[in-house]
Design goal:
- The structure holds 2 protein chains of 2 kinds.
- Chain A folds into 2 domains: 65-125 and 302-410 and 423-447, 3-Layer(aba) Sandwich (Rossmann fold), CATH 3.40.50.740; 127-297, Dimethylsulfoxide Reductase, domain 2 (3-Layer(aba) Sandwich).
- Chain A is 38% helix and 20% strand.
- Chain A contains 18 helices and 20 strands.
- Chain A has helices spanning 48-55, 74-87, 101-113, 127-136, 143-149, 160-163, 167-172, 214-225, 232-239, 243-255, 265-268, 274-287, 304-315, 337-342, 356-359, 362-370, 382-385, 425-447, and strands at 13-19, 31-36, 39-44, 65-67, 70-71, 91-95, 117-120, 137-141, 152-156, 188-193, 205-208, 258-263, 292-297, 321-322, 329-330, 348-352, 373-377, 389-392, 402-405, 411-414.
- In chain A, the strands form 4 sheets. In chain A, strands 5-4-18-17-16-6-7-14-15 form a 9-stranded mixed β-sheet. Chain A has a 5-stranded parallel β-sheet with strand order 11-10-9-12-13. Chain A has a 3-stranded antiparallel β-sheet with strand order 1-2-3.
- In chain A, strand 2 (31-36) and strand 3 form a beta hairpin.
- In chain A, helix 2 packs across helix 18.
- Chain A is globular and about 70 Å long.
- Chain B is an alpha/beta fold.
- Chain B has 19 helices and 24 strands.
- In chain B, strands 1, 2, 3, 4, 5, 19, 20, 21 and 22 form a 9-stranded mixed β-sheet that branches. An 8-stranded parallel β-sheet of chain B has the order 6-7-8-9-10-11-14-18, with helices on both faces.
- The two termini of chain B are 26 Å apart.
- The chains are: A alpha/beta, B alpha/beta.
- Chains A and B meet through helix 3, helix 4, strand 8, helix 5 and helix 13 of A and helix 1, helix 2, helix 3, helix 4 and helix 7 of B.
Chain lengths: 448, 569
């Protein structure tokens, strides 16, 4: 399960080659870390976000565990966590996108044993894309195919210059590829967004559409792909751009050898949500009547794709899964964490590597604060502060080995820089799972 | 004391010449052992199998149960899971979902409950090998392994283009070890690369050159088969031929058999490759199973599994990217495609096989023809290409179709009437015996895979044993075994999982010339999107595992082509 480098004495400087950055969905695995003791001095090839991730990671001296806000031994926290989860009638497990697949697997296992509700941060980012995918499918590829073949690169509602800084240089625009020997010169970049983002500077063609009109713009392209006559006045009114511009774009899309559309939360979290994603997935499919075309969601968290995969292989569904009846059921909107909390349904929770107390709606936060819950995070957060049990855990990729799945579902091993005194979330979760199963057996015995 | 005695059953063990004779079996430390010399030796546990049928555990040599394509299909098809009966959590087992692509735990439990104790996923891109291994850790009860996709691998095609066959052999050996896979798999060799270059791209025949590389499918098939034999891999090259599903594709299949030039070759889901007719005209579609089976019967280097189609709804999933596109267009379904850099592709589409459809009815009939036309049951293996032709859970139905010709004729009357003119199924009155069923469901696949410790019940074999209650209706007999024993433990009784057991991952680590590694590394760093060091799967990903040895066939057997029967235990 783990691939780690040898640990050296604290004073010695060591180099960890080909380390993996888990900050964003790019999951760059070519970082060379210069490490001294519990400090990373340099992260070669890392972007501005990656540097922030690696270099500002001193050892947190907080206690490993808090129970009701007071420091406590880990064993006590594990016991209390297992009690909370097994006594609950509607426990919720949420988060998971910033930890290893090894830990995700145990978390889903606990969800099964306690008959809980399990959801990941996918439900608040690309959940709509996941639903659209279930409707129409997806034509996609690994990022290396983009690098080697992609000659028309489009970004829709995505701003990689700020969210995925090495996207352009490592995968999509700059690299010389097998069939693009001149790199950037051999590619055309088109960016579609509602505002002129930092990424727009990288574009050969930037198209600013009216806010909340992504669906209309995508369907304009779908119509043009099929040669359907459109009313120029209506198109301009709806999309904010003249028909001739969309026609020019469609001509380029058809002329491309291997077209790629990357899309982001600018598409999935605006008016239309899963209908927008579905329009984009369908446009991509349509384009395969004329040439080769693929698309890819620019996923945010380092291992959110791993979370989708683990929840899917264990339950059959990607997120928003309820196990209360003793088997998995899937219903986004009903079993997604923000909704379960906002409706005041869950009576206990376990939050792993996520901070809903900072970013969920007011009713959801209020309800979460009112129920006993377990939280694990490397740092103190609003979520850990209000938790009945909070664990300070080691950081994946920096202290903890394991596996993460890049945004294109390619699994990549982690090479940690140094050991942490804190336990990993895998260790905590394994402890909780063991204790939950013991408590379940006791309850079965008590019943019979 | 010896762990377990299974007494008085009718034992079917064709590898050791037993065809239903009453015998006792003794099991210790997870393996079959010699019967003790003292007649009053007592076992720790005694299982009375009097009146029951005892066979080795089933071996599924071609299914899709783990890895990126399978998991994508799970995500993509919530609608069929909702309609199906789920797997409920118990105190000791996990819950899961069914549909045509069950979740991991459900897959393990259902295989075990059916009496199957070993299964191989047939198509994993090495770039995603880690993913398959992670799923295997969550797929309990069975031993498992996977085949590594390499028929469209750029290094493979480069080596062939430059006629560097030593380099090819070293790469095949390195790649299998790096992925911790079991066998070399070719899927539409060359065709998936063409798909990446052109709209609806594909190769049309064995001699059409692949874009950029200039090599032909024929060269890829011949040279990889040769490398596999020279590496002494336990299993032959495993071939999904070009032009799957196309009318008239039987000629491509015949040419593929010839292209092996006497090297060992396993042709998988052969049913999908046995069609006459042409130019996409449904009216000309017909069976060419007779012509192809004749060729297989006459060539000892060849083995096949069938890829039986069964009527109902399922999911088509394949490493054959252009095929997925074709199917989704034919049926107007949702479509998934994923091109994987330097290596492979993937296509997924829902599919419904209807007995009112001429094409589907013929596919069903052609599969049965294959079972009935291959004379030596050691060279034909039961498969549905799960879930492509249907679920592995349909094996008992296939067994009934093979063992009961009245039932077969009755079903034949319910399918499209043209099938009688376009195939010879109505004229085939062969019925399989229990011993032959035992061969095509466990003994033969184990032997074809080079698994000397599986598929039989002689001393030293893994104690993977399935015990059935005899029944006149063989579908009933085979769908719910009385006991299933895995590695010496009674894990299932009439479908109920008594105890969870992880099972082993079976893999190979061929010897290869290590001087090749710098060359692979240079090529890799230039074109892949991950680092070379992060590509090979480390030992940590194997919880329980067994490395199956390779042997140098060419030095031990000279120029003789080792047939599938050449192994001896």
């Amino acid at each position: 399960m783990i691939e780690s480098n040898q640990v050296s004495s604290p004073e010695e400087i060591k180099i960890v080659k080909d380390a993996t950055c888990t900050f964003c969905g790019c999951v760059c695995d070519d970082i060379d870390l210069k490490v001294q003791g519990h400090e990373i001095l340099e992260a070669k090839r890392a972007c501005v976000l990656g540097n922030g991730w690696f270099l500002n990671h001193g050892v947190d001296t907080r206690p490993d565990c808090f129970v009701e806000g007071r420091p406590a031994p880990v064993e006590e926290g594990v016991e209390r966590a297992a009690q909370i989860l097994t006594r609950a009638r509607y426990p919720l497990i949420y988060g998971l996108s910033d930890t290893t697949t090894e830990a995700q697997r145990v978390a889903v296992g606990i969800g099964d044993w306690i008959g809980g509700n399990i959801d990941t941060t996918t439900s608040v980012c690309h959940g709509p894309s996941g639903m659209a995918f279930q409707g129409v499918g997806e034509a996609t590829c690994s990022l290396g195919e983009v690098r080697n073949r992609g000659d028309l690169i489009m970004f829709w509602g995505s701003n990689p210059a700020e969210s995925h800084p090495r996207h352009f240089t490592k995968y999509s625009l700059m690299p010389k590829g097998m069939f693009l020997p001149n790199g950037r010169k051999d590619r055309t970049c088109v960016i579609v967004d509602v505002r002129k983002t930092k990424s727009a500077r990288a574009a050969d063609i930037f198209i600013q559409i009216k806010p909340r009109k992504d669906f209309e713009a995508l369907w304009t392209l779908r119509a043009l792909a099929q040669g359907i006559d459109l009313d120029p006045v209506e198109v301009e009114q709806e999309t904010g751009n003249p028909l001739s511009l969309w026609q020019d774009l469609m001509d380029r899309m058809k002329a491309a050898k291997f077209g790629v559309i990357f899309f982001g939360m600018g598409l999935t979290m605006t008016r239309g949500k899963h209908a927008n994603s579905e329009a984009l997935l369908t446009l991509t499919r349509d384009m395969n009547r004329y040439t080769r075309f693929v698309c890819k969601a620019n996923r945010g968290h380092g291992n959110v794709s791993g979370a989708d995969n683990v929840v899917s292989w264990r339950t059959g569904y990607p997120f928003g899964v309820n196990l209360a009846r003793g088997y998995p059921r899937f219903n986004p909107g009903e079993y997604t964490a923000a909704d379960v909390l906002a409706r005041g349904e869950a009576d206990a929770a376990m939050i792993i590597a996520s901070d809903p107390m900072a970013n969920f709606s007011q009713p959801a936060r209020q309800h979460l604060a009112s129920i006993p819950y377990v939280a694990m995070d490397p740092k103190e957060t609003p979520t850990t502060r209000s938790a009945a049990v909070a664990f300070t855990v080691a950081t994946y990729g920096i202290n903890v080995p394991g596996t993460v799945y890049r945004m294109d579902d390619i699994p990549i091993p982690l090479r940690p820089a140094f050991e942490s005194s804190h336990p990993s979330d895998l260790e905590i979760l394994q402890g909780i799972e063991r204790r939950v199963r013991e408590l379940n057996r006791q309850m079965i015995r008590a019943d019979s | 004391m010896i762990d377990l005695k299974i007494s008085g059953g009718y034992v079917y063990d064709p590898a050791n010449g037993l065809d239903g004779q009453v015998r006792d079996l003794w099991v210790h430390n997870g393996r079959i052992v010699e019967n003790p010399s003292h007649p009053d030796e007592k076992p720790v546990r005694h299982l009375n199998a009097a009146g029951l049928v005892v066979m080795p555990g089933g071996v599924d040599m071609h299914c899709h149960i783990a890895g990126p394509k399978v998991n994508t299909a799970r995500k993509m098809r919530p609608e069929e899971k909702r309609r199906d009966t789920p797997v409920r959590r118990t105190a000791s087992t996990h819950s899961g979902s069914m549909g045509s692509v069950p979740s991991t735990f459900a897959t393990g439990y259902k295989y075990l409950g059916l009496g199957y104790t070993t299964a191989f996923d047939a198509a994993v891109p090495p770039l995603s090998a880690r993913h398959a291994h992670e799923e295997f850790e969550d797929t309990p009860c069975i031993d498992k392994g996977f085949y590594v996709l390499m028929g469209n691998n750029h290094y493979v095609m480069n080596s062939i283009q430059n006629q560097e066959l030593e380099r090819l052999q070293a790469f095949v050996g390195w790649l299998l070890g790096a992925a911790k896979g079991y066998a070399a798999k070719l899927v539409n060799p060359g065709g998936v690369e063409v798909w990446k270059h052109h709209q609806a791209g594909n190769v049309s025949g064995l001699d059409e050159p692949v874009d950029h590389f200039g090599v032909t499918p024929r060269q890829i098939i011949r040279e990889v088969a040769h490398s596999v034999d020279r590496l002494g891999l336990p299993h032959a090259v495993h071939v999904h031929c070009n032009n799957l599903g196309m009318p008239g594709n039987w000629q491509t299949t015949l040419e593929t058999m010839r292209a092996l030039e006497g090297h060992r070759g396993h042709l998988t889901h052969i049913q999908f490759h046995s069609y006459g007719g042409g130019e996409g005209d449904e009216n000309t579609f017909n069976s060419k199973a007779v012509e192809l089976a004749d060729y297989v019967n006459a060539h000892e280097n060849l083995t096949v599994d069938v890829g039986q189609v069964l009527f109902g709804e399922t999911t088509s999933m394949t490493g054959d990217g252009p095929l997925g596109y074709f199917l989704s267009n034919v049926y107007g379904t949702k479509w998934f495609s994923a091109d994987i850099e330097m290596e492979s592709g993937c296509g997924i589409a829902p599919i419904q096989y209807r007995n009112k459809s001429l094409v589907h009815s013929l596919q069903w009939a052609i599969g049965l023809e294959w079972y009935l036309l291959i004379q030596d049951p050691w060279r034909v293996v039961m498969s549905t290409d799960h879930p492509n032709g249907g679920s592995f859970l349909a094996y008992p139905q296939i067994i009934r179709l093979l063992m009961d010709r009245t039932y077969r004729q009755d079903i034949l009357k319910t399918v499209h009437p043209q099938v009688r003119q376009r195939s010879i199924l109505a004229d085939l009155d062969r019925e399989y015996t229990l011993g032959e069923i035992c061969i095509v469901t466990r003994a033969a696949p184990a032997r074809i895979l080079g698994l000397h410790h599986k598929g039989h019940l002689g001393p030293g074999a893994d104690a993977d044993i399935t015990i059935y209650t005899p029944h006149e209706n063989k579908e009933i007999m085979f769908e719910l075994p009385r006991y299933v024993i895995k590695a010496g433990k009674i894990l299932a009784e009439e479908g109920d999982i008594r105890e969870e057991h992880l099972g082993k991952t079976l893999h190979v680590r061929p010897d290869y010339d290590p001087d090749i590694e710098p060359d692979i590394a240079d090529w890799f760093e230039q074109y892949y999107s991950i680092r070379f060091r992060n590509y090979p799967v480390s030992d940590h990903y194997l919880q329980e595992s067994e490395q199956i040895p390779c042997r140098n066939l060419e030095t031990s057997a000279g120029d003789d082509v080792p047939g599938p029967d050449s192994h001896g235990d």
